[in-house]
Every structure is written in C-alpha cells, then in structure tokens.
Amino acid sequence: MPKTLAAITAISGYVPPKLLTNADLEKMVDTTDEWILSRTGIKTRHLLADGLGVSDMAVHCVNELLEKTNTKPEDVDAVLCATVTPDRVFPATANIICHKTGIKNILSFDVMAACSGFLFALTTGSQFIETGKYKKVIVVGGDKMSSIIDYTDRATCVIFGDGCGAVMLEPSDDGMGIIDSILQSDGIGEKHLHQKAGGAIKPATAETVAAKEHYVYQEGQPVFKWAVSKMADVSAEIMEKNNLSAEDVAWLVPHQANKRIIDATARRMGVTDEKVMLNIQNYGNTTSGTIPLCLMDYENQLKKGDNIILAAFGGGFTWGSIYLKWAYN
Hints:
alpha/beta; Peroxisomal Thiolase, Chain A, domain 1; 5-stranded mixed β-sheet; 4-stranded mixed β-sheet; 11 helices; 13 strands; globular
C-alpha cells in the first residue's frame, strides 16, 4: 500500500499595493540604488498600510485557496501561520485568520522560526496529513516587516518588505507531495539577530520605544556567513540523502534574503541559474512569506512530478530544507 503523502494542491499569495522603491530609500537614508542592488538584488518592496496586519494579507490568500480547491470553510481541518510579526502577542494570528475567513472549531496556531518559519510550519502541517488525522491543512507564511523596521537604519530598511503566501495540503497516494525535510536550529544566533524589546524579558516602556528597541537588530556579517553556510549545506544534504543529482532537481526555491546567499546555495547544489526561483527584486525579504510567494510567481512553470527543493535560513538561528514532488500541472 503506497504511503500517504501531504501534497500541495493549491498556492496563493498577496502583496499590498504600496511600493517602496530604491529611489524612495535614497531620499530616506544614506544609500543608493546601485549599492542596494549590488548587495541585495532588491529593487522594490511592498508595504502594508497602517492599521492592517498579517491576518489581513492572509485573508486574501486563504479565500483564494478555498476557491481554487472548491473547499468550504467548514471542511478545513487546520490552519498554521508562520510569522514573526503577529497581529497581536495573543491570540494567535492563525486564530484571527480563521475568524475572518469563516473557519471555525479547528486546530489553528502560529509557528515562529523567523525566515525558516514557512518550512517549519509546512513540515508540521504535513504530519497531520501523513498520519491520516486531517484531510485539508492550510499553511500560511506572512509578515509585516515594515512594523518592526527602523527606516533610519540603512542596514536593515533596504532589505525587508511585507507579503504573504499560503498553500493547501491534502493527502496524496500517487507519490506526489512532501518527501523529506531537514529542519535545524542553533540558539547561538540570538545575539546576532533579534528584537531587543517587546518580549517578557524587556516589556515595552516609553524608554524602550524612544531607544528604538522594538525594531530588528541585525549584525550583518555573522548572519550572512551563517546563512551562506547553513542554507547551502542543508540543501546539499537533502539532495544527497534522497539520491538526487543537480540534473534531477527541477527547481530550487530559496528563501529570498539576499541574492548573494541564493547564488551561493545554488552553486553548492550544482543547480544552474535557470532552475532557481528568484523574485527578491520585486518584494525584498518578506521573511515567512518569501517561499510561498516564489511558488505563486512560478506556478505556471511547474509540472506534476517536478523535484523541488525548498531552502531557508532565519534568525535564531534556524534553517532547513524540504524535498517535494509537485502534485499538479
């Protein structure tokens, strides 16, 4: 009897209409379009309006998934949301998404693993399908990074944008779906990439707000070195584990953090540029949203049976890779 796999049966994505271009940033901080492009590969990023949160972007994605798969809200078994910018500290943004889309009385929770969050949530969601417990699981990845970015800090404000993506997972018995995953972490990364205030250790005060301690703090060089090493290594590892050559891989879907990190990962895998999904130029780093947004943008080029490698690295540090076979044309 064939093993039940969790297959992606639909993909959706959403980015808000407001654009922040490199030309805009030139007027805000000491930077240039050439400098940003050469170091990150980013041209534009999207910003969500004040007063809106991740759930508002996710509603677009979830409703589209329901329509694409002819699924009623009452038929959804679970919703997982990967995010580092939840609507509120509690309740979970996944709970709020369910309420806004008419999904009730189900399992829903958030997953926080920084830029690797979507991979962690996707792997978790797949387990519910593989065990036979659930038939329809929605996995959302999205962030409103503009809410935690200091737009006077040129080291971070050029990198991040807002966006969201989501997939529907359903059982498959034809060999299509998520085949394998490797997820890892090392808490040594906390000191290099974190948000200084806003948690239980350092709750918000007038002083923490004035000191700009509720924004992303990043030490670029150590983060870059770890990202290049770990994202490339784990992608190569999952290929070796599953006896895949570079020729066997149809697509690499890397977290869109930095063009140089993406290029290093592809080289380590031996994958040529035309097999690498790339949209960082349009959206910047949307953290949990980058991988599903890539799948959305490239959906019409995907074929049933394609071997696809997803790879990510994020704060924590967290990193991981997923090997899946695409389930539909």
